[in-house]
Amino acid sequence: MGRGKTLMIPERAHVDLMVQLNMSISLMSARIHCSRTINDCYMSDPVAYGTSKSTGRARKLKQRDERNFARAVSNTMKSAKDLGAEIQRKVSK
């Protein structure tokens, strides 16, 4: 799943100003045209906002396994189906 929109620097300045004016989160979201969740995340920790990166899904094969697979494919006369079955046995262990 992708990441959502983050607040740009001018929008962050607007949120900071609206926080000082004690505006509600709903009103802030309506004024800068973004979700309440984005505002809430920014207000909870403004310094660290937007710095974390999602790591994504873990790889099924490690890099070493991918290299071994490429080496096995280049040196064999087996079919793709046979190699897939062989690799599947190694991965499922």
From TrEMBL:
<dbReference type="InterPro" id="IPR036388">
    <property type="entry name" value="WH-like_DNA-bd_sf"/>
</dbReference>
<dbReference type="Pfam" id="PF11427">
    <property type="entry name" value="HTH_Tnp_Tc3_1"/>
</dbReference>
<dbReference type="InterPro" id="IPR025898">
    <property type="entry name" value="Tc3_transposase_DNA-bd_dom"/>
</dbReference>
<feature type="domain" description="Tc3 transposase DNA binding">
    <location>
        <begin position="3"/>
        <end position="52"/>
    </location>
</feature>
<dbReference type="Pfam" id="PF21517">
    <property type="entry name" value="HTH_Tnp_Tc3_2_like"/>
</dbReference>
<protein>
    <submittedName>
        <fullName>HTH_Tnp_Tc3_1 domain-containing protein</fullName>
    </submittedName>
</protein>
<feature type="domain" description="Transposable element Tc3 transposase-like DNA-binding HTH">
    <location>
        <begin position="64"/>
        <end position="93"/>
    </location>
</feature>
<dbReference type="GO" id="GO:0005634">
    <property type="term" value="C:nucleus"/>
</dbReference>
<dbReference type="GO" id="GO:0003677">
    <property type="term" value="F:DNA binding"/>
</dbReference>
<dbReference type="InterPro" id="IPR048703">
    <property type="entry name" value="Tnp_Tc3-like_HTH"/>
</dbReference>
<dbReference type="InterPro" id="IPR009057">
    <property type="entry name" value="Homeodomain-like_sf"/>
</dbReference>
